[in-house]
Write a structure and sequence with these properties.
Number of helices: 7
Helix content: 25-40%
Number of domains: 1
Number of strands: 4
Bound molecules: iron/sulfur cluster
Structural class: alpha/beta
Distance between the termini: 33 Å
Strand content: 5-15%
């Protein structure tokens, strides 16, 4: 085996920490169960910060994309949070590390990528394109929860092997 594997993936914060989500909207006790597969996959896992928690705290109300998009200072806050992550990815990619892409959260006003893209992801993907880094992604389905995994582990495995997620 070669150490390190020089393969990286970005995950939205709450994939590894459901304590960050809106009160009553948690879908697992802590990390999502598929995180165990990620840890064994040979990928280095970089956890993005949760932009909502760090701006409005744990007792924030449910808000839409439009609410976040017009919230004063919020985009600047997201840009500040993304900078160290993007710096790490840039440094590593210059050293030959392979960046697979992002595990996002469907229908989140900040972390969704299909249909209505979240505010945080819009800013992240803008910068990934500028830096010529991968913009591949897979999204956590809205039905996924601890105890309700259906085919998601298989889809994740395909994604980690380099297939584009079509769902
Ligand atoms: S903003 Fe993103 S990381 Fe934070 S709880 Fe929502 S989906 Fe998860």
């Amino acid at each position: 085996m070669d150490f390190p594997g020089k393969r990286l993936i970005l995950v939205c914060h709450c994939i590894l920490n459901q304590n960050a989500v809106l009160r009553g909207w948690e879908r697992a006790r802590g990390a999502f169960p598929f995180a165990a597969d990620l840890m064994k996959s040979g990928y280095g896992v970089i956890q993005l910060p949760c932009p909502e928690l760090l701006f409005l705290g744990p007792d924030r109300p449910p808000m839409s994309y439009e609410d976040y998009a017009r919230l004063s200072g919020y985009r600047e806050h997201c840009i500040r949070l993304l900078e160290p992550v993007l710096k790490e990815l840039s440094i590593c990619s210059r050293k030959g590390y392979r960046f697979r892409g992002v595990i996002a959260v469907r229908e989140s006003p900040n972390c969704a990528l299909s249909e209505r893209r979240g505010v945080f992801m819009e800013l992240l993907f803008e910068r990934l394109r500028e830096l010529h880094l991968s913009t591949d992604f897979i999204e956590l389905p809205v039905w996924y929860a601890e105890g309700e995994e259906r085919d998601f582990r298989k889809r994740l495995d395909d994604f980690l092997r380099g297939k584009r997620d079509e769902s």
